[in-house]
Amino acid sequence: MKKEFLIACVIAGGLVKAGIVNAQSAAPFSVNNKTVKVIVSEKEAGYKFTTTETLQFTDSPQPGETDVSVFVDPSKTFQTMLGIGGALTDASAETFYKLPKDKQKEFLTAYYDKEKGIGYSMARTNIQSCDFSSSSYSYIKEGDAALKTFDISHDKTYRIPFIKAAMAAAGGKLTLFVSPWSPPAFMKDNNDVLHGGSLKPEFDQSWANFFVKFIKAYEKEGIPVWGLSVQNEPMAKQTWESCKFTAEEERDFVKNFLGPTLHKQGLADKKLIIWDHNRDLLYQRASTVLEDPEAAKYVWGIGFHWYETWTGAGQQFESTRRVHESFPDKNLIFTEGCIEKFDFAKINDWDLGERYGLSMINDFNAGTVAWTDWNVLLDEKGGPNHVGNFCFAPIHADTKTGNLIYTSSYYYLGHFSKFINPGAKRISAVASRDKLLTTAYINPDGKLAVVVMNKTDEKIDYSLWIKGKAAKTTSLPHSIATLIVE
Fold first, then answer.
1. Which of 52, 58, 414, 422 has the fewest CB atoms within 10 Å, i.e. the most exposed one?
2. Catalytic pick among 94, 249, 336, 354
3. 481/471 Cα distance (integer angstroms)
């Protein structure tokens, strides 16, 4: 019996340890002499990052069953925030340069200034053309497998100056990763940069060399590249630039070509991201690649999008949680999301932002370390886009009037990016009612940022509860609030 009991304890202990592998204990946190600043964006009253009140903590040793509470425990810390941002595409760059100079400055301040804007710190850009380019283009001449004609001159007109302007507005640094939509047509089995197709095996090395050429060319232009993904949406056959990789094909390309090539070319420090597609197949892709140690050693993390909803399903947050539980030594990064099917009549709809809030809270609580929106700027038609795949962006430019239009998405994104800084640690946070969604971080300066979102039509009174102390407030209908404890 003693032996059986010992075995049971060892098994139980292993299970407990596995369950809390990502939780760490921090120094005790006290709310003594601290107040709570409540910053709100809301549908009806017109609040936009409006400081509505300052709260005081009072003793609250045991909340009642009928009390609504948001419980925050700063002593339990999880992943570190890398950053939040959006994609600097051809479409965004071209639209930016159609704006008058004063509106260009307003745009850059709105996104990248930490005090006057929302403090974006992450960025993504495309390798060669994507759907949000005015046309398809390549950096090499067709048939040039040796890449002797490689030239990024196309990007020097709009995109490179645009990225540099964003970097300068962000204080000189953005954490930038790059993604390809398609190899050149001759490298693919359908001889077309559009409509899916796959990379021909004889061009595996040439395509790996292409990544190196691009990264080094951008860095020569003064744009540091932090990371790269293997392929944008590798399971989608799109009418625009696309290329399909099965999980096994991506695993072997990383293991035998891309990973070793980056290392041999002095780019071993670049963070390599696999998948870069929807949550629904996330686990299958992650497990296939990461269970191969020779492939996994090159992989920094797993990127994902939110478009699994195209099937009629909801956002599959459970996939993200299972991947984090199963591969806790790899990083989760949200690499793209936007509201599809642009309709100017809906540009002021509040639920555009609520889609962002729902995703961001769930993704961060699942262990995601960075969150990157799609186009930072589009025109009044939801483009430019060379295949008619028009979408919403957080900010649109009316190129006829030169005005900027801020959608609710901009404010929802800002409730995270403006108040949760790179280097912040996620802490334990949970609401006692499912009508409130929440996540929380402790910033490097010691201040807590607690995000509370209310998607309902109800006004909900609740308390922010931390270690026996509570501060009472109200969550307005269709609102998002960031509570700063300082």
1. 58
2. 336
3. 14
354 is catalytic: no
Q: Which residues contact 178 (CB under 8 A, 6 or more apart)?
A: 124, 125, 126, 127, 214, 215, 218, 225, 227, 228, 229
| Cα gap 1→213, rounded to integer Å | 65
Residue 293: alpha-carbon gap to chain centroid:
26
Residues in CB range of 333: below 8 A, 6 or more apart? 82, 273, 301, 302, 303, 304, 368, 369, 370, 371, 372
- 239-267: pLDDT as tens digits: 999 999 999 999 999 999 999 999 999 99
| Plot region of 54 (φ>0 → left; ψ -120 to 50 → alpha; else → beta) | beta
CB 98 within 8 A of CB 105: no
The phi and psi torsions of 169 (rounded to 5 degrees) equal -65, -25
**What SS3 state is found at 14?**
helix
CA distances from 285 to 21, 250, 334, 366, 374 (A): 22, 9, 15, 18, 22
Say if pTM beats, i.e. exceeds, 0.85.
Answer: yes
Assign 409 to helix, strand or coil.
helix
With contact defined as beta carbons under 8 Å apart, do 76 and 86 qualify? no
Longest dimension (CA), the chain: 82
Tell the residue number behind the tokens 């039509």, with chain if given.
457
* 24 CB neighbour count, 10 Å cutoff: 12
pLDDT in tens, 343-383: 999 999 999 999 999 999 999 999 999 999 999 999 999 99
* List 233, 241, 250, 354, catalytic entry: 233
336 is catalytic: yes
For residue 434, what are its two tokens? 């499912």
Q: Is 19 exposed, middle or buried (0-12, 13-18, 19+ CB in 10 A)?
A: exposed
